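Hi R.,

Here's the chain you asked about this morning:
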Amino acid sequence: MVKEHDFIAIGGGSGGFNAARVARQYSDNVAIVDGATELGGLCILRGCMPSKTLIYSAEVLHLAQKGSEFGLDIPEARVSMEKLHQRKLDTIKEFTDYRVEYMQSGKYHLYRNFAKFISEDTVELDNGDLLRGKYFIIATGSYVSKPPIPGIDDSDIWTSDDILDLATLPESVIVLGGGVVACELAQFLNRVGAKTTQIQRSPHILKDQAPDVSEVVETALRDEGLDLYTGTKLQSISRTNNGFEIVFDQDGIEKRCSAKHVVNALGRSPATGNLGLEEAGIELKPNGQIVTDTYQRTTNFKIYAAGDCTGPFEIVHTAVLQGEFAAYHAFGVEKTPLNYDHMLDAVFTDPQVARVGLTEAVLREREIDFVVADYPFDDHGKSILMEAKYGFVRVFAEKLSGRILGAEIVSKDAVELIHALSVAVSNNLTAESLLRTHWYHPTLSEILSYPLEDIVDELSDET
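And here is the predicted structure, written out as tokens:
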């Protein structure tokens, strides 16, 4: 017997859940299929919320340990991993409980199973049940990848999941990788007191950012005592009597590092295997992500995809927007497709990194005439009094109109500051129009007005 549904979300994380939530506005026959041990999705359970909870606590600890720089006498500040772990559990429970309660409210047909397609409109659950859908969305997320490095398959090598679940302080850790997850977790571990080494294959960490942005974070990490190696080639991972040894090349020289634990933070792969996608006529990109059009449709127009399993950005708010848009489209509701030229991304290191809109590389690739201006935080009043002197803000504007096309910030609270420029990018505002805004003094955000003034002055000189 085949059960029929109007809309079926495969995956109950941010993309699938929000697609189902929108679909429920137009149908009372919506299903969610999720066979994970816990409901909630990567962001809530093992991603954004737990990591940022721990990172913020480590920032408070770091500031307390720097108390003398602020004229404070704080005799001792140290972590209690047990209490920190419990705070994380308590925090994410609020979010998890809400989502689970909503999914189990009776508004949805909830199947606690894994599914695979057996035809263009039917999936088989791992208990043998069959579900037929008028529309589907695939939102199965991603998993930690394992590059071909000898020893990477050792069962005692940690992933980000293990770090986020620590209740004791590790003696020493080597973090492999230089992406967002690797950098955030390496700084967290170093700040709470673990002897931390980070090894990155590319010349810079955060290789998708501008090199000088990455260099600011590299300087900050090294200033805090983290051992950071970049431009390496990993050779092997092997067991020792007291943990692990990593062998790698750097500038043609073989080097070795040892630690009690190793973290594989070398990237993630889309979770698109075992879904029977060929049976449904769904094509994949070379990297394993699902091919979609501007409407989030796969090559089977009755099946949509959202989030990490399709890209182009593996970011939670992107997955939410994609899932919502897909559900609206499936039910014939007209919405404007996502404009990826306006997208935000962020890194919660300290200093933080935030970016919106087009980068300098993309602007040059598209042959767009632009002007650019930047300003450093070590020459800015509020950041000086906060002892937050790392970094700068950089703004790109169209040369002809002064319209803001993109921006980069590396600084204290950059992820909060970027939204002012995100509003500008998404609404086609100009540098001149932003300067008509009142920028309060002394604030971190008033620094944004300085490159805007330089852009306006430069454009005025050319007219």
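One quick note: The chain has three domains: 2-144+269-339, 160-266, 351-462.

Cheers,
M.
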